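User: I'm writing a short methods note and want a consistent example. For Glutamyl-Q tRNA(Asp) synthetase, I'll paste the sequence; you return only the C-alpha cells, no commentary, since I'll be parsing the reply automatically.
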Amino acid sequence: MSSYIGRFAPSPTGPLHLGSLYTALASFLDARHYQGTWLLRIEDLDPPREEAGATEKIIETLQAHHLHWDNAVVLQSQRSERYETVLENLADTGHSFFCTCSRKQLAAYPQGYPGFCRHHQTQSANGKNAAIRLKTDGIQQTFIDLLQGQQQLPKRPDGLTNDFVIKRKDQLYAYQLAVVIDDIDQGVNVVVRGNDILDSTFKQGYLYRALGHTPPAYLHLPVIAAADGQKLSKQNHAPAIDNNQALDNIRQALALLNQPMPPTHLNLPNTLLFSIEHWDRQYLSRDAWLTTADNVSG
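Assistant:
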C-alpha cells in the first residue's frame, strides 16, 4: 500500500462527545502508529441538521486534546462545484438516473429499490423535484474489514436493487457521494470509523467502482452507548467533551479502545506518544456496541 492517509470527518451537528472523541483518537493513533498522514474534514452538507459554531467547537476540542491534523481543514460546503462535475460524469456514462418516487411509494419496498425510475435519464418533465440515484446493477459487494473481517451485502429479493440516492430531492448532495469524492481527492486509503455506518461501505463501494477507483481499507469500531444503552449522540443529548479535562478524556477513550494504559505520571503529549507507540488493532473489541460502563481505565 502507498503511504497511509487517514482522516477524521465529523458533521457539525454539535460539539464532540466521548463517542466522537473515541473515534477521532482511534483514527489518529492508527495513522500515527503507521507513520501516516491524518486529515480533518468537516462534513457540513446538511444545514438543517447543523449547529451554529459547531465547526469551531470541534476544531477547538481536537486542538485541546493534541489531536493535531496535517494540511488544511477541508469543508464539504466549499466543494459543490466538484460534486456537480462528478454527477454530470455519472449521468453521461449511464451510471445514474433521476428518481421521483415518493417516500410513501418506497415504504412498500423496505428491502431495496424497486427500479420504478431507472429509465429516467433526464430531469422529469412533469415539474417534480427529483433525486438522483446510482445504478448498482446487481453487483454483489464484499469487503474485508480490518477489524470485523469478511463483510457481504445480503442479496435483494427478485425485482429489487441496491440503487441509492447520491443527490437528494431537496438538492443537497448525499453523504455517500461527497464522502467518496473527498476520500478520492484527498488520497485517503485507510478509514477508521464507527460500526454504525458499516452498511454505507457497500454503497460507497458501488460508487468507487462507477468512478474507476479502488476503495480504501476500512476499520469499523464498536459504537459507544451510554449506560442506558442509547448511542452517544447529539440527538440523545450526549454531554459535550470538557476541554479542561483533556488528559482524563484521552485516558477514558483509550480504555474503551482496550489499549495499553500509559503511566499516570505522563502529561497529555507524552500520553499520546506512548499510545502511538503501543497502538495495536488486535486489542480492539469486535463487538457492535460498547457502553461507557465498559470503561476500565487504569
